[in-house]
Amino acid sequence: DENYYSAYGKIEATRVPLEKSLLGHVVRTGKPYVANDVRSDPYYFEVNPQTLSEMAVPILLDGKVIGVINAESPKLNQYSDGDVAFLSTLAGQIATAMHRVQLYEEIQQYAASLSAMVQKRTEELQEERDRLEAILRSAGEGILFTDPNGIIVYANQALVQQSGFTEEELIGSSPNLLGSGTMSPAVFEEMWTTIRAGKRWHGELVNRHKDGKLYDVSLTISPLYDEEDQLRGFVSVQSDITKLKEVERLKSEFVSNVSHELRTPLTNIKTYITLLQKGKPEKRERYFEVLDLETGRLTHLIQDLLDLSRLETGMTEADLALHDLTHVLRQSLDSFSRQIQFTQKTIINQIPDKLPLVWSDEAQIQTVLSNILGNALAYTPTGGTILYAAGVEDDQVWIKIADNGFGIARAEMSRLFDRFFRGKAAERSRTPGTGLGLAIAKEIIVRHRGSIEVDSEIDRGTIFTIWLPISQG
Questions:
Q1: Fewer CB within 10 Å, N- or C-terminus of the chain?
Q2: Closest Cα partner for 379 from 415, 418, 416, 327?
Q3: Quick check: 316 pLDDT over 80?
């Protein structure tokens, strides 16, 4: 009926009370309801005065009413059982569609929630990975991860620096890439037997740098297992102990040198004491000269040891004051005058009458000059020449001691100031000593905020230059 639908088009939205309406009855019972004459129906609630028949069918989802399909007609007895069946079928299809929509929304919500959880966990894992990576990269020891077959899958920056190989060169390679070929096969057999048994192995190896240089490492290897106790690989941590090994070697060499240097004067002292007791009286003066020489040599050795020990432990502090070093330079030269005369060597003295003031400890500077000038005299052949000079450049006083002696090999230059080191020149000249003089000299000059430079060439001589800062007011 056109007029009927036209009339409905003019009706505004109306709230229907569920407690007293046909729709409310269907919601409460969950069953279809037909009123073919609404005028006498107890549940009818008027919305359109023209309505005479009304039918309502519930939309059920999981046994619950989620909506109602309502039909109205201006005619009496308009709706049959067939109409109810049709609307019930339609309601079922609507319920199915709504259920699917609800499921889709739930899936979308779950997917969004799952995505957020995955994103959060991914960020947490990335943070953990970044943190672990930062720890591994900042570690001072070289760290390797290998798979169960021993193939490298990770190498940190410290290992790259230790070995000289890039990360790309290491990953995918065997740790044998680092091997020096100097170790006994029995060491590696023991290592693999231990770690494949699930135990930690610790030992020392000699590795080879990419440039061919050998270096010592302290190595610890541990197997890695997953939650199911399956072997996932091995982690190795290695520390470069080359310097420690060198210190141990130098200490052993030092003990040997000191023992030798102590034995020689002590043997001579004992011998000449016996000669004093049993020798000829007319030679006693000569005996005393030798005893004086040997006790002086012994005293010098012990003093060097004490000086180095005090400098290392900080027990000796510089007694700094403003000094013109001219006096100290000349005094140091005078102390060697007898030796210079005896060995027939020429000293070119270019010490100025006055130098700028320098904060210094005169006694310690005297020790430095004595050690370096003493070396120049010892390693310069008879008849040689030594330049002894000083001057000013920029804001520094420089002191130069140059000789035309045996010279120092380039390979030894980097170790020249190492404690206990003695080069080939010492062997060549058979000069006694312990290799402490230059180590003491450098320690003192550094404490004076200065520096020492060395330039040398085999069989042409050596130049030592000391730099000390001039006092600024």
A1: C
A2: 416
A3: no
